[in-house]
Amino acid sequence: MKLNRIIKPSKFDNFTIVPNAIFRHEGISQQATGLYCYLFSHSSSQEITINFITNHFKNGRDAVRSAIAELEQLGYLQREQLRQNGKIVAYNYILKDTPATGKPSTEKPSTEKPSTGKPSTGKPSPGKPSPENPIQSNTITSISINNTNKRNTSTKSENVEIAYKHFVQLFPKRYRPKTPAAIEKWKVCLDRIERIDGYDLRKVYEVCKQLRQDQFWSENFLSVLKLRNNDKNGIRYIDRFMERNALRTRPTALNKLKGVKDLVPYLEGSTKMVKAYTNNGVIQDFNLRMNLTPVEYKEILDYAHSK
What's this model's pTM, rounded to 2 decimal places? Predict the structure, then answer.
């Protein structure tokens, strides 16, 4: 199975020929147009991922994901989910040479006004027909959106409304949003995690539940909004949590070590080792071996090196 591939009409495969439809589409962003051209410049043998695209442009991951979502919304791009054992492992990027609604019209709006009984001034009508842009779902759970003839990036699915009620219960009352505006921010964040980032909100909820039970993250993860923020390395927390270690089970042996904030794996030659950072300092590998049983130490060692 080929993963993370570009799929486009074969007539474009050996040339950087971009369909004119993308350039004639009124209202599309320059960012989405540029990304479409960039994707078209690659052959179908090129492996494409969000990281691959982000490393090429100076725009961040959010900007790239936003452009992808816009192209999907307009029907120029379809992301095909590839699964193994029921889990999404990659996406293929299927490029369309015309949008879902067909080629954008190049006809000029009629300058003829309806008869009003008054002499015509000869001025063109300011009104424009608004093109219909059907919104395509790119998430595991389908999104129900009203008014699909309008592009509205804050439109949320019923799934998000239900999910919000569960997410908010994970946090102490003093950290929960209290105003309508603050509540809306949380819902928009969850919507973008599902619709733009492509994560299953049920799985995100399970990860957040585990984080809220973790000694370190219970004090440092106090809002859903943090999920789409970047850490000090420029990695978004949602990606960090979902892709690295948030789904793993916390070793019970850590309960014997007070105030552990982080486990740092390292190698001495070819030997795996680990040290623990706590509120009071660092517990070196040797001390961990002395204070834990061999089974407990191995559990922590494997946990740290699986990051």
Answer: 0.36
Question: What is the token pair recorded at 222?
Answer: 């106090």
**Which segments of the chain are extended strands (E)?**
6-7, 77-84, 87-95, 260-268, 271-278, 281-283
CATH 2.40.50 for domain 1-104: no
What band does 6 get if pLDDT is binned at 50, 70 and 90?
low
CA distance 243 to 219: 21
Residue 118 pLDDT exceeds 90: no
- Boundaries of every domain in the chain: 1-104, 153-247, 252-305
* The pLDDT of residue 120 is above 80: no
Strands 6-7 and 77-84 turn out to be unpaired
Residue 63 CA to residue 67 CA, distance in Å, equals 6
Q: What are phi and psi of 63, to 5 degrees?
A: -65, -40
Return the number of other C-beta atoms located less than 10 Å from residue 83's C-beta. 10
pLDDT at 217: 87
Banded pLDDT at 137 (limits 50, 70, 90): very low
Q: Which of 178, 263, 247 is nearest to 209 (CA)?
A: 247
**DSSP summary character for residue 47:** B
Helix (H, G, I), strand (E, B) or coil at 65: helix
First to last CA, the chain: 26
CA dihedral 209, 211, 212, 217 (to 10 degrees): -170
d(C-alpha 114, C-alpha 127), whole Å: 12
Q: Is the pLDDT of residue 106 over 60?
A: no
What is the per-residue pLDDT for 210? 84
- Mean pLDDT for 198-218 is 86
Calculate the CA 17 to chain-centre distance. 29
